[in-house]
Structure formats: structure tokens, C-alpha cells
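Hi Y.,

Following your request, here is the sequence exactly as I used it, all 255 residues.
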Amino acid sequence: MKNKILITILLLSSLYSYSQCIPDQNYTSPGIYPDQNTGLPSALIGQPYSAIITALTPLDTVVDISGLSLNVTIANIDLTNVIGLPNNFTYDCQPPNCSFPGGAYSCAEIFSTIDPSVADLGVYPLILTTSTLAINVPLLGTYTQLDTVDYFYIEIIAPTSTSFGSFNDETFEFKNIYPNPVKSESEFYFISGESDILDFLVYNTFGEIVYSSKINALRGVNSSVINVDNYLNGIYTIVLKSDSKTISTRMLVVN
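Below is the corresponding structure, written out as C-alpha cells. Let me know if you'd prefer a different format.
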């Protein structure tokens, strides 16, 4: 019995250690990688998902405390939560407690526990919440700062599609419309690098506007539902316009 228990413990320990991520030490500047210009890979329907986020935590930095810029030492930055993950997605870290020491490499792995399905299609904005403990702070001794990383997202797509998983202040683009062809209603996703009030227009094949409204876009991933019950069958163009940018995508109505 003792041998069986020992073997089980060894197997579980081996499985656990194998599941830990390995930080990419090719990065030499403190920061989070991939950065917002690279982003996270897309998740494919019917396939397991895994994405590694490498953190090279600075040993010291400058923080603003009550209007004063102070040089401090970073004891650790804790990843306290990842909000917005798709169904059956989770994360773990190396170190396992998700406390990343200053001056060292660490990582977090986001992965699926069950392969995503058609029902999971869409864009999932992520918010990584962190807590930074600074030491050797003049007058205070220690100081804790709460922050968020809000530029990552995961898009679940069909295997024939392509995408990337981040945005910046200049981003303005459609990401997905599902279902398409549309029988009754469909949901489309777009990304805006800033909060804005957009013109939402739908054109038929003759270039005529068949629908118009306003959309209050937030910075990041946005979604909206379009109902086509009163549309004739055919191809339509969905247009979103800000004061300086225009994006469009097409949908096929098959009522």
C-alpha cells in the first residue's frame, strides 16, 4: 500500500511540475511579454489552448506617491487575478503562488481545460490585476500599488481564421461576426483603442443605408447584436465610423 501511495505522489508531482510554464529569458528588458503589439495567440475550435506570458520584473523603479517621484526597490509583483477568461480556461504561474520577485524572470500560462467549441466563438477581453510591493520607500518603508493590464484578449476562432490577441490606442478594427450567414440575428465584435461614440451603418448591395444608429464604444473589445428579421436575403456591409476612422465588414442574410 505504501508503495502505491508513493508511486501516486510521484506521478502527481511529475504531472504538476510538467504543467508549470517556463519564462522566455530571451527578453532582456523589464516588462511583460508578449507586449501589446504582439498579443496572445488565438484559440482554435476543437484544439487545446496554451499561451505563456513572461514577466521580467524590475528590481527597482520610480513610483509616484502623493505627487512625489520616489526611487524604490521592488520586492515582488503579485498576479492576483485574470478576469474575463473564456469558459473552461484557467491559468497558473511559475512561481506557483503567482508572486513574481523583483529582478527575476517569472511566467503565467493561460490554458484550456476543455477544448473550445463553436459555442465559445468570440472575443474575450482580459484584465490582469496585480499588486506591487515596494520596499526601501523613503519615509514610508513599504508601499503597495494596485495595477491592471487591460490590453490582452483571447479570440476563439475557426481553424481557418487568423488573428492576434492585443490592441493599442490606435486600434480600430472588426474581429468577428457570428453566425454569418445570418438568419435572424448575429453578434459582431470590434476593438477600439479609445472610448468614442460611433456611427453604426448597414448598407445593402445598392449602397443604400438600410439601418443607422449610434454605438457607445469603450476602449477595448466591444460587441453588438444586429437583428435581420426584416432584411431581404443578400450581402450587406456593416460600417462603423468615428470622426477620423472607418471600418467595415460583410454579412450574408439568408432568412
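The longest strand covers residues 68-83.

Thanks again,
Q.
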